[in-house]
Amino acid sequence: MADYTAKFALAPMVRIGELPIRLLALKYGADLVWGPEIVDRKILTCHKVYNKKLDTVDFLSSSGNLKIPGVTNLVFRTYRKLEKGKLIFQMGTADPKLAVKAANVIADDVDGIDINAGCPKHFSIHSGMGAALLKKPDLLCEILTCLVEQVGKPHKKPISVKIRLLHEKKDTLDLVSRLVKTGISNLTLHCRTREMRNREPPIRDYVSEIYDICQKNNVSFIINGGIKKYEDYLEIQKKYGADIGCMIASAAERNVSCFSSKGLVPWSQIARDYMKIALKFDNSPPNTKYCLLRMIPGTTAIHPVLNSMREPNDLMKGLMNMMDDEGNLISSKEGKVKEHRENTEIEIPYKRRDTLSESDMADQIPEKRIRV
Ligand SMILES: Cc1cc2nc3c(=O)[nH]c(=O)nc-3n(C[C@H](O)[C@H](O)[C@H](O)COP(=O)(O)O)c2cc1C
User: Fold this and answer.
1) Which CATH class is domain 8-259?
2) Which residue lies with its CA nearest to atom 11 of ligand 1?
3) Does the predicted interface ipTM exceed a cut of 0.95?
4) Residue 224 CA, closest ligand 1 atom number
5) What UniProt keywords are attached to this protein's entry (predicted)?
6) How many angstroms separate the CA atoms of 119 and 261, rounded?
7) How far apart are CA 123 and CA 230, in angstroms?
8) From 46, 119, 141, 146, the catalytic residue
C-alpha cells in the first residue's frame, strides 16, 4: 500500500501528467506521482487492456469518435514496472455511487485513489466537482467514506483528497477535522484559496495547525503551492516537521528535474529525455508537443519552430536532434530552420498573436506545415 508520509510528489496536472512526465519525475527523484484528473464518467467508459508491446496497462474508452484526427481512445496508461507503489490516480467526481463504480475499474492497477476537491476551473465546478465540493462538505465526506469502505478496504488501496484553503481559517480547520475522520490516508492542501492564481504566493499561516489535526488522526499531510525545488522540500520539513510531504506542479511542468537533490538539469537535456520516453511509450503526438512547449523556454529559437509543426513524432524528434547541449539550434541547420520559419509564418485567425498566452500558443494549429 502506498505510504504518503514525508513524500516528495508530482502534482496532478491535466495534459501534463501523462506517463512520460511521470516516469521522468520518478527518474529525477519524485517519491510519488499523481496522474491527471480523470472524471468518473470517463473511467466508466473504459476497459482495461494489457499492452504487450509496451508492457503497460491501458484503459481504453469505448466512446469518442476515432475518425477525428488526433483522437485516441486511450484514457490512462501505466507502466507498472516503474510506477508500482508510486502512482496515485486522481478522480473528478460529485457522486459517491459513480465514484465507487469508477474507482473499482482502475483500483487494481494504481496505488492510491485521490479525489480532486480543489480545481477552480469552470469545467470542474459547473458539474459540482473540484472546488465545488469544498462548499458541500457532507457530500465530499460521503464520497470519501464510500471510497474507503467499498474500494480502499477491499482492494487494499489508500484513499486521499486534495483541497484548497477556504477564506476563513476556522472554516478550513473545521473542514479538515471532518475529512480526516472519513478513513482517508492522506490530505493534500493546495495553500491557496480557489480565487488565487498560481503566480500568487501561497498562504502557509496555519499549516502547522492543519498538520497537527492530520497527525492526531493518523492521516499523512502533503502541502502544495509555490514549491519549486528539492531545497524547498527540505526547508518545509525543517520548519513544520519531518513527516510533512511536498507536492510540485508548475515548476515540474517547466523542468521536471526539480525533484532532484543534485539541482536542475538543463531544459535541453530534459526535452531530449522526454522525447525518448514519449516515443518509447507511444505517447500521443499532440500531447508530446504540448508538454515540450511547456518545457522549452518561449524565448528560444526552437520554441516557435516546434509550435508551428503539426504533431508527428518524427518531426519533433528531428528537431530535438538539432539542438546542442545548451538548447541552441545547431548552426549548420539553423539557417535552414530560419528559412523555413520565414516561409511559414503562422497565421492565427481569431486572436492577435501578441495577446496570446503560452498555452494559447500551444493550442494553436498552424496553417502551414513546416519541414525541418
Ligand atoms: C497544467 C496544470 C494542470 C493542473 N491539473 C490539475 C488536476 O488535474 N488536478 C488537480 O487537483 N490540480 C491540478 N492542477 C493544480 C496543481 O495540482 C497544483 O495544485 C497547483 O498548480 C499549485 O501548485 P504549484 O504552485 O506547484 O503550481 C493543475 C495545475 C497545472 C499548472
Assistant:
1) alpha beta
2) 116
3) yes
4) 23
5) Flavoprotein, FMN, mRNA processing, NAD, Oxidoreductase, tRNA processing
6) 30
7) 32
8) 119
The domain spans of the chain are 8-259, 267-363
The Å distance, Cα 369 to ligand 1 centre, comes to 32
Answer yes or no: are the C-beta atoms of 163 and 118 closer than 8 Å. yes
Distance (Å) from CA 352 to ligand 1 centroid: 27
- Gap between the Cα atoms of 253 and 198, Å rounded: 13
- In angstroms, the CA 9 to CA 191 distance is 15
**Residues paired with residue 114 on neighbouring β-strands, in sequence order:** 90, 160
Query: Could you list the pLDDT tens digit for every one of the 372 residues in the chain?
Result: 889 999 999 999 999 999 999 999 999 999 999 999 999 999 999 999 999 999 999 999 988 766 665 567 999 999 999 999 999 999 999 999 999 999 999 999 999 999 999 999 888 888 999 999 999 999 999 999 999 999 999 999 999 999 999 999 999 999 999 999 999 999 999 999 999 999 999 999 999 999 999 999 999 999 999 999 999 999 999 999 999 999 999 999 999 999 999 999 999 999 999 999 999 999 999 999 999 999 999 999 999 999 998 888 888 888 888 888 888 887 544 444 544 444 443 332 323 333 333 333 333 333 333 332
Distance 112 CA to ligand 1 centre (A): 18
Residue with CA nearest ligand 1 atom 21: 249
DSSP 60-104: EES-S-TTSTT---EEEEE-HHHHTTTEEEEEE-S-HHHHHHHHH
For residues 278 and 257, give the distance between their C-alpha atoms in angstroms, rounded to a whole number: 16
